[in-house]
Amino acid sequence: MTDPIQDALASLLPPLLGTLTALEGIGRYLHPPLQPALIERLGDQDALLHQAAHAFSAVDWPEQMHPFRDRMALACLHTLRAADGLRTAPGETNPLFAASRALRQTGRALEALYPAASILPSVSRFFLKPGRKDVPAGSPDGTGVLHASNDIGMRGGFSVYIPEWIDRSAPVPVVFALHGGSGHGRLFLWNWVREARSLGFVVVAPTARGDTWSLHEPEVDSENLYGILAEIERNYALDPKQRLLTGMSDGGTFTLLSGLDADSPFTHLAPVAASFHPMMLAMSGPERLRGLPVYLVHGALDWMFPVSAGRTAAESLKAAGAAVVYREVADLSHTYPREENGGILDWFLFGTG
Fold first, then answer.
1. Quick count: other Cβ atoms within 10 Å of Cβ 125?
2. How far are the Cα atoms of 171, 197, 244 from residue 144, in angstroms, in the given order?
């Protein structure tokens, strides 16, 4: 790279990665009473990013580097859209909805940025768990981030991340991660890529066939999940003893509805911020429930599904014979707690917790 390109890239990466980190933190702690104060966490990161992005695009890029330039510019665009949307959210009719909608832009930014992880060390570290400095090199065909009929606006498809360095001949664990109501698997996938890339498991993020998961007719989306699992198994070796179904909000509720079914192929369930009714247990049976590993996460500040839902779920599942771990997070509202991924994975992969 020529010096102007190196200089522009060196100026761009700190505010880009810094703004994305700030946005992730805001998303984790987003709670209606705290929203104005949380926006202050952005500081001047997005202003610095806007300035650096302008300088980055003004460089005279050789034609062969245009794809790289365009992807980095796209990552900046979506990051800035997320920051701008957050800043204007307090003036909207529904500030919380507006902020949540803005934060979905971060998934698009991460998707645009991820290919740079193979050539830029700072970006590679950004897509790893804290403490993991590197992963083995390699990017064979059929690995990385892949999509099947899952463009934004499409329903019923899925996105999958296959770590570039895994041995495809050896069975690996798989995590199915279900988005919340009105969400999309292509965006929700990014809640799990760091962990999958660091530890070497497959993560699949399906998109519901409807606007949300088929909570009143579980078989509609369950059949789709089973089909997706079968499709991936035709191309990759998956460990039949380590298949985790997890999800957030409506995705968490559907994790229970679908995962408790006697025919479910999933070995572990980890619903987050889920609704629950004891009648769900009637859809299961003693053989499925006995010893079934279930990891429940619920926020004490959850305003959509009060924490009593999580407590009831834990008590009911334990009484039915499931092996339950219940995590009640004091400062968690109705948002996805990325830091809980570590505990879920320790429990799922290594049997701890």
1. 15
2. 17, 9, 20
pLDDT per residue as tens digits for the range 316-329: 999 999 999 999 99
Residue 242: left if φ>0, alpha if ψ -120 to 50, beta else—which one?
beta
pTM recorded for the entire structure: 0.96
Q: DSSP labels for 245-274?
A: EEEETHHHHHHHHHHTSTT---SEEEEES-
Collapsed DSSP state (helix, strand, coil) of residue 146: strand
Confidence of residue 1 (pLDDT cuts 50, 70, 90): low
Instruction: Say if residue 63's pLDDT is above 80.
Output: yes
Which 3-state string (H, E, C) describes 151-216? CCCCCCCEEEEECCCCCCCCCEEEEEEECCCCCCHHHHHHHCHHHHHHHCCEEEEECCCCCCCCCC
- Residue 276: both structure tokens together: 């629950």
Structure confidence by residue, pLDDT tens digits, 137-194: 767 788 999 999 999 999 999 999 999 998 888 999 999 999 999 899 999 999 999 9
- Classify strands 202-206 and 172-178 as parallel, antiparallel or unpaired: parallel
| Rounded distance between C-alpha atoms, residue 259 and residue 269, angstroms | 7
User: For the chain, which domains are there?
Assistant: 3-125 (1.20.120), 137-350 (3.40.50.1820)
